[in-house]
Amino acid sequence: MNLVVTGGAGYIGSVVVSQLLDAGHSVTVIDDLSTGHRDAVPEGAEFVEMRIHDCLPVLAEGNFDGVLHFAAKSLVAESVTSPEVYWENNVVGSYALLEAVRKTKIPTMVFSSTAATYGQPDESPITEDTPANPMNAYGASKLAVDQMLRFYASAHGIGAISLRYFNVGGARGRFGERHDPESHLIPNLLKVAKGEKETAQIFGVDYDTVDGTALRDYLHVVDLGRAHLLALERAESGRHNIINLGSGTGYTVRQVLEACRSVTGHPIPAEESPRRDGDPVSLVASNSRGLEELGWKPELGLQSIVSDAWDFMRS
After folding, report:
1. For 35-66, how does the pLDDT look when each residue is reduced to its tens digit (9 = 90+)?
2. Distance CA 111, CA 69 (A)
3. Bridge partner list, 163
4. Under a CB-based contact definition with an 8 Å cutoff, are residues 56 and 99 in contact?
């Protein structure tokens, strides 16, 4: 297939582009490099530096079979203090992209959505039928795009799938996580092992879990990428589908910390701090729909996630 990948210079986008190329697809990456890295775009992909707001000429010239849409602002804290940035970038930009898809009659779209659309649900594991109740502008902006896709798919015959990620980690060779600032648990723990930070922090040790720390779902970025390739094949004209992507079980903060200690051989000292306001006990995905709709299930566990992330960070 001849494909467009927005945000293909970012962490997940670059991994998926590398998988698409290895599978024999042609890929054009659109990225404004506001958070991505030019050297993260795999060799073999055509690169266009631009905002997705301006993508119509590129899509009109390419005779594309599908779009994979990763481009977005994704810092929760920033979305709380600057919600206007998230509406303008994630919602207005995605609207411009969808209009370009409609006008150029591209039949398929796979969207990088998020578990943040669910907010802080009481139930766990979280299914696709769990009510969406985002707690910040980031989650709300992604939910707005999910809803746009639903109506565009029905009205214009687009086959659209929203993949709602939980926590993603790991790397694929030279393609890995390079966020600034870094807000994710695993790379922050590994930064301690690498000597870039003195200690790690554990927020909350009195949760009702096996060891008192919060339970979260972690998925290897390679498994995540496989789901995108499958979604391209399974998208149905005129239908929008939402599919959670997660391990289905989850790991506590202490279990992640111990995995990082085991992989790195470093003690990774950690300070215990009170719970952060709004942190739920458990955020774990049900991945049964992924198996039913895509024939997908995760193959790589926590040890592989940490090991691959550590190899990438040291390189």
Report:
1. 999 999 999 999 999 999 999 999 999 899 99
2. 5
3. 112, 243
4. yes
Provide the token pair at 34. 């506001």
pTM: 0.95
Strands 215-216 and 251-252: antiparallel
Residue 279 in tokens: 């942190």
What are the start-end ranges of the H helices in 220-301?
221-234, 253-264, 288-289
- Tokens 């694929």 identify what position? 172
CA distances from residue 257 to 223, 224, 263 in whole angstroms, order as listed: 21, 22, 10
Burial state string for 277-309 with b = 16 or more CB within 10 A and e = fewer than 16: eeebebbbbbbebbeebbebebebbbebbbbbb
Query: Do 227 and 290 form a contact (C-beta atoms < 8 A)?
Result: yes
Q: Which residues contact 275 (CB under 8 A, 6 or more apart)?
A: 203, 204, 206, 207
Catalytic site includes residue 138: yes
DSSP letter string, 39-61: GGSPTTSEEEE--GGG-HHHHHH
pLDDT tens-digit series, residues 213-271: 999 999 999 999 999 999 999 999 999 999 999 999 899 999 999 999 999 999 999 99
Check residue 124 and give its pLDDT: 85
Please give the Cα distance from 284 to 118 (Å, whole number). Answer: 11
State both tokens at 148: 């746009």
Given 118, 138, 152, 251, the catalytic residue: 138
